Amino acid sequence: MNLLPIIDVGLALLVLGIATWTIAAREVFGAVVGYVVYGLLLSLVWVRLYAPDVALTEAAVGGGVTGVLLLTAGARLRSGGGKEAGEATGLPLRVVAAVLSLLVALGLAAVVLFLPEPPATLAPEARAGLAATGLGNPITAVLISYRSFDTMLEKIVLVLALTGVWSVAADGAWGRAPAPIGRMAPDGALTLLTQTLAPLGIVVGLHIFWVGADAPGGAFQGGALLAAMWMIVMMARLAEAPRIDARWLRLALIAGPAVFFLAGLAGVAWGDGFFSYPPGFAKPIILFIEAFMLLTIAVTLPMLVAGPPSKGAGR
Amino acid sequence: MTPAVLAGLVGAAVVGLGLYGLIVDPQPLRKLLAFNLIGSGVFLVFGIVARRGAAAGFEFDPVPQAMVITGIVVAFAASALAVALILRLSETSGGVSLDPAVWTKPDDKGEKGDGQ
After folding, report:
1. Within this chain, do residues A30 and A153 fall inside the same structural domain, yes or no?
2. Mind listing the pLDDT tens digit of every residue in chain A (315 residues)?
3. How far is B17 from chain A (nearest CA, A)?
4. Helix or strand or coil: residue A84?
5. How many CA atoms lie within 13 A of A161 on its CB side?
6. Count of CB atoms within 10 A of residue A157's CB?
7. Is residue A85 part of a domain?
8. Helix and strand tally (H, E) in chain B?
9. Cβ of B100: how many Cβ atoms within 10 Å?
10. What's the sign of the alpha-carbon dihedral A94, A96, A102, A105?
11. Helix-strand-coil percent breakdown of chain A, rounded to 5?
12. Both A134 and A67 in a single domain?
């Protein structure tokens, strides 16, 4: 007897149950914990869709890093004394919202059930491009070669988002370090966990990046794991967040997009145009670009979570 | 029903749940959480497009999958910016609300809406 269909249905019910909880929970804290669990369960669904690369990203970024971001935000809101004000929505609006949401969900479900036949696909084009790159993982090939422009712009979006976060700092705090993530006085258990976990996590993160050329993984997934390790080190107060005007930090932030852009320009000089990699050298160039993207992702995500520079945290 | 169709239906339901939370919950942080739910539902629906596009020896179409990976990271960046704005609003106005009436009421004893 094949158990997989039962597991699929069980997983679907669990995901829906947890999603309902994140909306219905009374406290922000409970809702965010629900969201983290939701992200982890969702990554199992991605595995069932033959998408281990997406599953890794969802677990690390969608669940983990976003979870820490929201938990930190909830804690900072409470400690700031700011109430999350706002009147509860009245019953009539709730009913209208429920009907509207139901209609949208049903419409989407209809789209899912009646997708066109035969299905649209770009897989043959991606397969054709894969041979030229020398990579084994088609996702990495699509990200860095076949649709490299998207990926470069996405790195720039990360830097722009961080610029936006920093720009809401109070005037007097500019150039200082962000406020610490988490509690002021960490307990021994967290310190021990960090000292045990961080070295392992760094090795695993680098491994996921390195095998990403041929197996599920890559700069996004490895970078997110390295980012998580830096965040847990900051949470345990084993290292403080850097000042935002530190030269090395600025360089690490722009390293990924800058190297990516220069590699694209080199394609104009050598080859057939922007982002054309010379035949035979595609794989080393792609790994070179990915190494700097890894650095940028590993530095940008924790700085986004840490938030704007804070007056109290200057050094 | 294949696992892909089931996952697509879960995605559709999650979008509905998230939309409801986004409209009904008055707290900005909860709205942000609900918005992230909508996003993940959209990614799931896109994920089944990727699964259906299996061809050329792949079990999936790598292009939509790569776009979902990019999307997850961009969604996080946007959430971080939203969190920074919410916290700044809380700092300057003493409370977080999207209701303009809350911070323009004359009887707030000067605690709110005074800029710094």
Report:
1. no
2. 688 888 889 999 999 999 999 999 888 889 999 999 999 999 999 998 888 889 999 998 888 899 999 988 888 888 766 555 566 778 888 999 999 999 999 999 999 888 877 777 788 877 777 777 777 788 888 887 777 888 888 889 999 999 999 999 888 888 888 888 876 677 888 889 899 999 999 999 999 998 888 888 888 889 999 999 999 898 888 888 888 888 999 999 999 899 988 888 888 887 777 777 777 777 888 888 889 999 999 999 999 999 899 876 544
3. 7
4. strand
5. 27
6. 16
7. no
8. 3, 1
9. 9
10. negative
11. 75, 0, 25
12. no
Give A187's contacts (C-beta < 8 A, 6+ positions apart).
none
Q: CA-nearest residue of chain B to A68?
A: B80
Residues spanned by the domain of A40: 1-80
Query: A150 vs B11: CB contact, 8 Å cut-off?
Result: no
Is A115 among the domain residues? no
Is residue A211 domain-shared with residue A311, that is, in the same domain? yes
- A50 within a domain of the structure (yes/no): yes
Instruction: Tell me which H or E stretch contains A260.
Output: helix A247-270
CA distance A127 to A140: 12
| A85 token code pair | 């004000």
Contacts of A9 (CB under 8 A, 6+ apart): B6
Q: Report the C-alpha gap between B96 and B26 in whole angstroms.
A: 10
CB contacts < 8 A, A to B, total 310
Contact A168 B85 (CB under 8 A): yes
**Where would I find the beta strands (DSSP E) of chain B?**
95-96
Q: Between vectors from CA A254 to CA A252 and to CA A256, what angle results, nearest 5°?
A: 85
Listed residue (A146, A168, A177) closest to A275, CA to CA: A146
- Contact yes or no for B48 and A112 at CB 8 A: yes
Paired tokens of A288: 């070179």
A123/B81 CB distance under 8 A: no
> B45 vs A84: CB contact, 8 Å cut-off?
no
Report the alpha-carbon distance of residue B92 to residue A108 in Å, rounded. Answer: 40
- The span from the CA of A288 to the CA of A276, in Å, is 15
Among B35, B40, B98, which would you mutate to test the A interface (most chain A Cβ atoms within 10 Å of its Cβ)? B40
Report strand pairing: A83-84 vs B95-96: parallel
Residues A126 and A220 in one domain: yes
Q: In chain B, what are the domains?
A: 3-103 (1.10.287.3510)
Residue A296 lies in a domain: yes
